[in-house]
Design a protein that fits this description.
The structure is a single chain. This protein has 9 helices and 4 strands, in the order αααααααβαββαβ. The chain is an alpha+beta fold. The chain has 2 domains: 128 residues, no CATH class; 99 residues, no CATH class. The longest helix is centred in the N-terminal third of the chain and has 24 residues. The two termini are 21 Å apart. The structure holds heme C.
Length: 239
Amino acid sequence: MTCRLPAALALLILPALPAGAQSLEDSAARLAELLRAGRAVISENQALINDPGLGDKGLTPEAFLSQVTAAFLARTGSPAVSEDLPPFQRALAEAQLEAMGQTIAEAQPLINMEGVGFKGFIPAVFARLANERFGELADGRAAVKITAPPELVRNRKARPDDWERAVIEDRFLSAGWTRGEAYAEETGPGFRMLIPEYYSESCLACHGSPAGETDVTGFPKEGKAAGDLGGAISITLRP
Ligand code: HEC
């Protein structure tokens, strides 16, 4: 197929994903990995983005997306988009890359602002904006959200719904849960998967101790430690 459809349209007219929980899990896992690649590229460029002495950073959507696809390939050993992917998976990846590119395009004035160091354009903010845009492009067929245990939520938009909250509290935070293991379930509103995320040392400047102290973004720190559950990537698919 040589014609390139706008991602949202492509999703709407593409055939349904072949039935089977495995392909749904694969699709959800790929969405999570591509989101992680996008966040990692923001993180790798954080010093550049925060440079107050530089105007144009050269972090165009094209430059950003080529780093993201390289990071995805390095993380998974598989290209983000290829002819070999099932059509639904491929359309999801294209829509997600489109959403990330639009997010970076819209952030250009902020990223390129001279004379301002920290601009608040961090991986979590990028991820939220890109996920929102992805949800619009996917038009109800797929959604990606980052959520967290209720007491850790900073942005109200990240608040867990009942299903997410139950999975976090009854499974991820339970003693017997295998660290890092995702939970997936066929629910009324679609196939849902929740993937736990844990704080590493690099997160603690903002989410660490002392609890209550204001971090660089203006939020009170949560007083968490490396290894603690920080949140979860939540994916819904309605193929
Ligand atoms: C520079 C400070 C900073 C660092 C470092 C940081 N975060 Fe955050 N984090 C934030 C801010 C600010 C938000 C709210 C973003 C928004 O507006 O949606 C956030 C949001 C989140 C959320 C979404 C839920 C919520 O609270 O709104 C999770 C999960 C999260 N961070 C985990 C992490 C993890 C894991 C790391 C390390 C890999 C990390 N953060 C590093 C500042 C930071």
